[in-house]
Amino acid sequence: MTKILIIDDEEWLREMIQLALRQRGYEVVEARNGQEGIEKALQELPDLILCDVNMGKVNGYRTLAALRDETSTASIPFILMTGLADNAGMRHGMELGADDYLPKPFTTDVLYAAVEARLKKKQAVREEAETKFRDLRDNLSLMMPHELRTPLNGILSNAELLVTSAATLPPGEVAEMGQEILKSGQQLERLIENFLIYARLELIASDPQKIPALRVGRAEQPAALVEKIARDQADIAGRGADLIVEAAAVAVPMSGEYFGKVVNELVQNAFKFSGAGTPVQVTLAGTADGVAFSVSDRGRGFSAEQSQRIGAYQQFDRKLQEQQGLGLGLVICKRLAELHGGTLAIGGSAIGGATVVITLPKPISG
Predict the structure, then answer these.
(1) Could you tell me the end-to-end alpha-carbon distance of the chain, in angstroms, rounded to an integer?
(2) Closest by CA position to 163, among listed 183, 152, 177
(3) pLDDT digits (tens, 9 = 90+) for 85-102
(4) Domains in the chain and their CATH numbers?
């Protein structure tokens, strides 16, 4: 049964709301003031909270702030009730995390509409989260064993041959096996590195107090960084002639470590998913609002649906396109852009391919 907590210092109003909600089949819990409301919320963990603004020592705003600071109650829908609704007060409540305002006096129909709207939204958010969790679980269960086993098999099989047959193998074959071990080791290192970076970014995203410190970082000589990383990836792919770099001397509001990661992932993907002899264009330029970094290729591109559901541990058309990697590269770039106040967008063209654009705001001076 859906449980609703009513926090109000007027007994007659609590009683009226309680009777109305119980007629709709809700379980109702009452609290006579803000402090008692905080305690009841932590104890009962209701599905929705209705709270008066104007109460004694602990008013509705303080009650809301206290419950938003607690992990167990931070996401509970919270409706503020007040007879003195004004723009400043409503704005303050929304800044603290209120989901809705219910001006007093209100009718039972208005009460029902507000309550049902919040509960429906909560259910929609829960269903979306469950869907994402299922997708994450399915992608992990399908991909992780394969992705980790592939480089491990390369390391172990070649190492075993070296241990058992090194004395009889020609130097050329020994060197070739060493190269395979190195290649597989580098692949495994990248998988682990991406996993650790993704986990670090999710921890930062879960703590808003850490985000300002992240945004202080600045890439030194970003144009030179873009040029070097793009050239290195082109050489690795054996496609130096396909690369076009246009990097302006603009300030990038992201640390060199993270911006380098963005450049590396997007350029590597462009070469991986496009054919030899087709251009890969890398651009860093200033905009009216900040800075834009983009990578374009003539590969298979993304559908509109795929662009909208970039997610961790997700690769598109996995059964059709056998590629190595956990699929974390794009989501790491997207997360980095968002945490720095920017965006990641994917577009295409009539002749095919994809263009991935990272936009970032202007660096804050000082």
Answers:
(1) 54
(2) 177
(3) 667 777 888 888 888 999
(4) 3-106 (3.40.50.2300), 138-210 (1.10.287), 215-361 (3.30.565.10)
